Structure formats: structure tokens, C-alpha cells
Amino acid sequence: MAVCIAVIAKENYPLYIRSIPAEHELKFHYTVHTSLDVVDEKVSAMGKALVDQRELYLGLLYPTEDYKVYGYVTNSKVKFVMVVDSSNTALRDNEIRSMFRKLHNSYTDVMCNPFYNPGDRIHSRAFDNMVTSMMVQGC
Amino acid sequence: MEQGPAAAVGTAGAVGAAANAGAPAAVGAAAAGALSSGASAGYCPVPLPLSDSEQQCYSELFARCCCSSASATSSSSSSSSSSSSSSSSGHPQPPPEVGRGAPLPGPAATAGANQVGELFRASQLPAETLHQITELCGAKRVGYFGLTQFYVALKLIAAAQSGLPVRVESIKCELPLPRFMALKNDSEIRYSNPVEFHGMKCQIPYVTMEKNSFKRVDDGEKQDTMSPTMSPISSPPSSPSNYQRVPLTYGYGKLRSGMDQIHAAPYEARQLALQQEGPTSGSHGPKPTRRQTSLIRSLSVEREPQESNSNYPDDPWRITEEQREYYINQFKSLQPDLSSFISGSLAKNFFTKSKLTIPELSYIWELSDVDCDGALTLPEFCAAFHLIVARKNGYPLPESLPQTLQPDYLQSAFLKPKRDCALFDSYSESMSVNQQPRDLNRIEKTSLKEKVDLTAPAQDVNIDDKPALKISSMDEAMPKDVSVDTASPKDLNTVKARPRSRSYSNTSLEEAMKRVEEPPTPPPRPQKSHSRASSLDLNKVFQPNAPAAKPGLLPPPPALPPRPFVSQVLHHNTSNDSVSQPKPPGQLPSYSDFRLLEQTDQVSEIELHPQLTRTPSQTEESGSPVKKDLPPSKPIRRKLRPENQIMENQEPPSSVSGPSTVPIVKPHAPVQKQSSKQKKAIQTAIRKNKEANAVLARLNSELQQQLKEVHQERIALENQLEQLRPVTVL
């Protein structure tokens, strides 16, 4: 079950961060920030490779004893970072992928809204609901 | 309210057993204590045994009634009770919070009579019984529902529901908790319609009914308090979610409070009439319940299609005919093809004019753009527009798109007005004949599409409608007959019912809102096709130019961003007096804003003509009339009109008379305000001239470009000629 989900813009500032246990919010923010380095590393490693779904999903960025961090980058260099509780019986890779896919779809819907300026914080309630459902169920 | 455990858990404890009130500890203790004190001193001579669960339940109910009443009385007089009832009227808090979080008011607090009445009605006991109960519990005597009286009443209700006679003695024994049906927090709303609950048509009358009830409460008449209060609270139909009901009811509360000031005369009359219908308390009983149920019905979006005599107009999320037409006209002004989309940026510009905040607009977009494609189809656009209108009128936005605003629902709904002779006639005036079959074809296509898209069970009714609609629409397409009388018989009854019931919308709440808020002119008549046909070039030329030119040119005196189509609409309204119809309609606050905002733009040909006639009357604009001669001057003339209209608009909105179609020029001519008018006129003339300059400059540049191209062509041709010419010089 995801404990923290973050959407980070191309310029590496956060568009949306949400964590479940409120008290560790700062810790997760910090984690997400440091994971950006790993994301950049992976992205640059891919180089000019063709972008497809597989490469959008970056996989496990780095694990700690408490949790694991997964990354996903879109074609427009918007990054999704998800922190998952390790104690949770390991979510399958496919599940993580599907979660990212859902995130991506919701993000696209937010983008479609003409009143949303790219680069703004994401306030969409539909997006919030989707993220909440992911964090609670972890599906 | 959650239905208490049906099982009687009556552990009879002495009243003084405040200690027994374990659960809500202090609350229960206070309640019990209060009850005991009240019991001893009050009407009920017998100490009232309350079990723990009962105490808990009652205290919660009482808190709810109290909160709502307290907030209600604090807020505008009317409102409250109904809508949020339990929750605070003015603030859309989720009901559970209030129910549980609110501390029990002190023993001296009184439950609002309206909430109490509504609560009692929700118990689904016959009105006579309820009267008896109120009498017995002493509320009538003391004139209010204090803690004691409330608890006794609840007990009596429980007794009555158990089949016991309503007597003081009945409450001595152990009783199950009283059951209240169809309360706000009920996850299952049971509209088990007792005989009383059969659709009445009262619509908004409940608003004033409530007001009267308040007065009567002051007089201490309990019966009246019970009767007229309709609160949508108990009604809340199963809109998509429970939560959504809350905003609906809240919205109603706000709306009602707004209605107080706005109250249109017809409403008053109707309400009075209705009130007079039930003069005595005896007849009062069934009537209010009926009214309430009708209100429930009206709010019950789902049931709406099935209950032809239910009260549609009460539903704030239902689009009335006038509104729909207005929306469609607006859509056409943005995008003439009714079957295609409005792009996101276009819609954004348009909706930004409504002066709602961006986050709200963003949310409205989210709700209405169902397919999330960044563009709005006609039903999506209407839904979005309707939400904006509702929001401007103070309704909180729903959590999810109401069923009546779903695109597929609207799609099928759109078919009906096409059938409606009157509406379609007005349509045909504006639409060319070509458009009609196109629209019908579109309807066919969309109905087909909608058939495929339908998934929700609630839309099954639409599915039934679709074949009939398709058939009828195809039939219509053949003769191109506007009046769909022949087609209508083919409709299903539900479909037929809708247009019929829509006719009630004339008395609807929304109409009142619109009437009140609208500037006196009728809704826009696009006439776009007409204008296009007549002056294609200009429109093409100036449409792209004007919006670009305006932002730079217009200094912002309050609310004057250029909005082409809206101004066109405005122009139509003021200029086309003869053309304007009697329907008041869709005047929405946003519309009024638009009108005020309206500056220049693409005015149609028709406007030009009246403008021509008008310009002579405008002395300040003497400069511009000179340019009338040239085609490029047409935009100037158009801009002159906005001047007129701006001036005119400023005055009519202040006067809330509804004289829509009077040639406004003349009333303004009067000397009264000429000096200020002249000033404004001069300023606007200056502005217009500047805009005209910009437009002309752009035209100039375009022509220059064309000239260059032509030059180049000429050069190329000359070269060819030389090549072809036999070589004479060696």
C-alpha cells in the first residue's frame, strides 16, 4: 500500500505530494526529493532510447528497510514517485505498474482541463480521489 | 440519522440514573438530568425512562435539530431548517460531523420547529398521530420543543411506530427506538410512499411556507410548524451519493435564503393559495406531508423520469427549457456546429467571463467534461454552464455530476425540445432550415452513440426513450417539420412527460432566480447564421481580429473585457426588440455579467441596421457615423452599439422591471442622465475608435500582404511571359 505519492514537474518541483500517515510527511518529502537523483540517473542512462511504456516505468529506485521507492517518468518529463511500505507483502511489479498507469491517466485528465495551467499545483478532486483510493487499498 | 437498532434495548432506568447514561457520558448525563428536571417540572409528570441507546439516539437527534435551528435562526430567517436541517444551514458541513460532533445543547435549547416537524414526518406516522404527539409532549403548551418535550415526543413516536396508542402511559414501557425514514444520512432512502406521498405539485411554495411556519412558531402553533416545513433534508433523493445530497440541501437552504429577498410575486401568490387550501390544522396534516413528498420527489432525481407528476423544477440540477435554449445559443455562438466540440481554450475564455474563480471553474470542468477529452460537446457544455449558473447563485458544487446533467441524459433531453413546437419554432427562427435536419441527424447519431454509451442503470429510461426518439427524430427529419406533434405520439410516456413537466418550469425556482437576476432583456438570439449569411467577409475578418485587438485597446473600466459572442447577444437583445421573444429566461447572473462585460465584437448584420438607425440619435458618436459608408466602418458601428447597450444596460439592471423588448434607446434619450452619459459615451467612443483603428490597421496589414502576394504572382507571370516570348534579341 502506497504511503506516499508525488508528482514532480519537469523542473523538479513538486506538483502534488500526498502521504498517508501524516506524521511522517516530512520524511517522505525528503525521500521523494532524494529519489529524484536516482530518477535522473536512470533517465539519462536510457539516453535517447525509444520511449515506451516499459521505459516510462523506472522500477524500484532504491529500497530502505522501511519502504521502497518506485519511479515513473512520462514523456513530458513529469515524474511520479511512489513510496511503498515494505512491510506490505511485496506488491508485485505489475501492480506497481498498474498504479502508475492509473496515475498517469488521472494526470492526463487533469491536463485536459483547460483551467489547469501546467506547472500549477494539482487541486483536482478527481485526482485526489484516485490517489486516495490508491493509497488506501494499494491496488 | 442512522436508524437506531430496531431491537428494543429498553433497560428501564430511572430518570435520575444519569449515571446510566454511559455512552455519551456528559452528554447523556446532561440529557438525562435535564430530562429529569424537565420531567419533574414540566408537562410530563412521569419520569421518563430512557435506555442508553435511546438517550444517545435522542440526544443526537436533538442536537441535530438544535444545530440546524440555531444556525437557521442565526442565518436568514427562512432557509435552514429544511436544507441542511441537521447540519448547519449556512455551512456545508458533512452531516455526520455535525450530528456527532456537536455538543448537546443545554437543556434550555430548543429544537427548531421545522427540523422537528420534518423529523417527525420522516417517522412516517400519520399526521393526526403527530399532532397528538406534539400535544402530548407538551411542545404545544410551552410553545417550543425543549429537551423534555423532544424526548417525550420521540418516545411517543416510538410507541406509535410500535403500534401502541399515543398516550403518556405508553412511554413508560420499553420501546424500540423511533425510526425515521428518509433522513439525510440514511444510506438507504426509502420512499416507501404511504398514501399521502403522492405527487403534489407544489414547488417552491415551501419556501414561503417555511417563512410562515416560522412566524407561526412564534405564535406557538405547533401544527403549522409541522406542516409547511419541507425540508429537503429528509427528502434528499438518492443522487449519486449521500454526500451529494448534502450539498444539494445546503444549496437549497442558501437558495431559499436568497429567495427571501428575491421572491417573485407569482410565487407568493401561489404559496398563499396553497396555504389557503389547507386552512385548518386538520387538513394541514396531509397537505404538508404531501408537499414535502412532492418536494422529495422533485429532488429525487432518479425517480424523476418515472414520476411524471413529480415536481421537476425544484431540482436545481435540472435544466429548464429556457436555460437549455440559452445554453444552446451560447454554444452556437462559440461553435456554430451543434454536433461538434468546443475546444478547451475557447471554453476557458468563455467561462472565465463568469467571474468564478479558476479553481472552481477547474472543478466544474472536471465535473462536466465526462470523457476528459479537453473539449465540450453540447450536453457537456450545457452541464458546465448550468453548474456555473448554479454556483453563481450560491449553490455549492456537487461532488459528482448530477444525473440530470449527465451528457447522455442531456442528450436525450435535448431531443424533446426539438419536438416541442414552441421551442422549436424559436429555434427555427434562428437556425436556418439547413441546420435543422443537421441537428436532427446529429440527434440520431448521438442517440445511437448514447445508446452504446449508456451503462448506468439509472439511464435505462433513456434507453427506452432512444428508439422512440430516434424514430421520431427520423420522422422529423423527413418533413423537416418543426412541430413535432406527429412525432410526439410515438414517444414513450416518460419522454412525453418530461416536456410536459418541463412546462412547470415556468414556476420553477430557477426561473425565479433568473427572473430576478436577469437584466430586463430577453435571452440572446444568436442570429448568427443570419449575420453570417449576410456579411461573411466582415465576420471572418473581424472575428479573429476583434478579440486580439480588444485586450490591448480596452482600458478596463469595470467589467468590460471584450467578448464577441456575448456582445452579439446583447446587441440582439437591445437592438432586435421586435425579434426578441417574450421568454424571459435564461437570464442568468452570468448572463448579466456578460452583458455588462460586453464590449464590442462581431455584431451581426441585423445589429448594423438598427445601429444605423440609432447612430443618428447618438450625438456623441458623430465621428463614427462618418465611417458608416465603408465596409470597414462596420465594426465601428458595431462598437457604437455596445456603447448604447452599455449605457442602456447599466440602467435597466438597476431597475428590475421586466420590460424586455422596449427599444432602449429612447428611454435613454431622456435628458435626465445625458451629461454623464455623454461622458461615458465619449469615452466609449474613444475606445471604440481605438479598436476600430486597430482593426483597420490589421485589415491594412492583411491587405498589404495580399498585395504582396499579388505582386509576386504578377512577377511570376511576367517571367513566364518573357520566357514564352520568342527571343527577339540575340
From TrEMBL, chain A:
The keyword Cytoplasm applies. It is found in: Cytoplasm, Perinuclear region; Endoplasmic reticulum; Golgi apparatus. It comes from the Eukaryota. GO terms for cellular component: cytosol; endoplasmic reticulum; Golgi apparatus; perinuclear region of cytoplasm; TRAPP complex. Keywords: Cytoplasm, Endoplasmic reticulum, ER-Golgi transport, Golgi apparatus, Transport. InterPro entries: Longin-like_dom_sf (IPR011012), Sedlin (IPR006722), TRAPPC2L (IPR044760). Its main location: cytoplasm. GO terms for biological process: endoplasmic reticulum to Golgi vesicle-mediated transport. It holds the Pfam family Sedlin_N. The keyword Ion transport does not apply. Belongs to the TRAPP small subunits family. Sedlin subfamily. This is Trafficking protein particle complex subunit 2-like protein. The gene is TRAPPC2L.
